[in-house]
Design goal:
Elements: E1 11-14, H1 22-25, E2 31-35, H2 40-43, H3 46-53, E3 58-62, H4 71-84, E4 88-93, H5 95-107, H6 115-119, E5 130-134, E6 146-151, E7 156-161, E8 169-172, H7 182-200, H8 208-230, H9 235-248, H10 262-274, H11 278-292, H12 298-307, H13 316-333, H14 349-359, H15 373-381
Parallel strand pairs: 1-8, 2-3, 2-4, 4-5, 5-8
Antiparallel strand pairs: 6-7
Helix pairs in contact: 4-5, 7-8, 7-9, 7-11, 8-9, 10-11, 10-14, 11-13, 11-15, 12-13, 14-15
Length: about 375
Amino acid sequence: MENFEFFNPVKIIFGKGQIAKLRGELPEGARLLVTYGGGSIKRNGVYDQVMAALEGRTVSEFSGIEPNPTYETLMKAAEMVKREGISFLLAVGGGSVLDGTKFIAAAARFEGEPWDILAKNAPVNAAVPLGAVLTLPATGSEMNCFAVISRAGTQEKFPFASPFVYPKFSIIDPAVTFTLPARQVGNGIVDAFAHVLEQYLTYPANAPLQDRFAESILLTLIEEGPKTLAHPTDYDARANLCWCASMALNGLIGLGVPQDWTTHMIGHELTALCGLDHAQTLAVVFPGTLAERKQAKRAKLLQYAERVWGLRAGSEDEKIDQAIERTGAFFESVGVKTRLKDYGLAPDVVQSVSQRLAARGWTTLGERHDIGPKEVEAILSHSL
């Protein structure tokens, strides 16, 4: 097991009716900015619950944060924070709203050009404190310090991380996710599953506890994910999905083990270029990543085949191939397609993505730092 440090200060308030506890989590006298997306929280009743809990507080609102939050939109909010003296941010929504709010928090306190946080990995030394009310289980942003932001004007999408943008608290009421469209639920299942695979399907590091944590999340997603689609108001299934998504990327399963993230980096380019949902890009790319990296990931793929998919018959190669096939089939089974053509994309996008990564010097991706432009093209070729 590799050396590691672990710090996760996020307070999780989980369960039915927990939005009512919001008032007690906010600092007294804070000037609040509630951030959200396209208005679904007003249709499903979450907005009313939040505002009831905030009654008597000084509250401003910023809406319109996109599914792939853009720098252009978020900078408007950052300026609003500075102009109005906002002292606490409350993100109400899914991972995009949470990611966007983390960037707002950092940008509003950043000295210099905020784009450098994303494009140049400029360090974040301060941020406006924030909390979250989650409405979509997927990214795990409610329990980590990561965010991914797009810039529409340049068709770029970059991640950043800072301990200053950990939410002070996150409220997760699975019942408020009952009205989500099936597409968003399926995306959330794939997103959480892919987060686990990026940390688990690398090479052995003699970390059996982390491996079994990861496998338990994968198995639970396989069991509970389809239930949430078949029975949208099944509280227990939805609660399990919500907790899986949080646990998939809160740092726990990645402690002391190598991580990959190749699929995510390729996927970000597909989103920036073509506008695909984040989870759609993961479903497109992941089977190809596993197919191309069969030898580098051989030991863990065999473990994955046997422990997660229960594949024990046949040769090692047969079990690995079946595990990769079942991964893609699972994505398809929750409604997320795995081929570029399913999204109307032409084969030339393969070279475009490879060239964009190479132009940035991102030519040593993967847990072994050996994935360059040629390997990226081979990975994406599996999805044609």
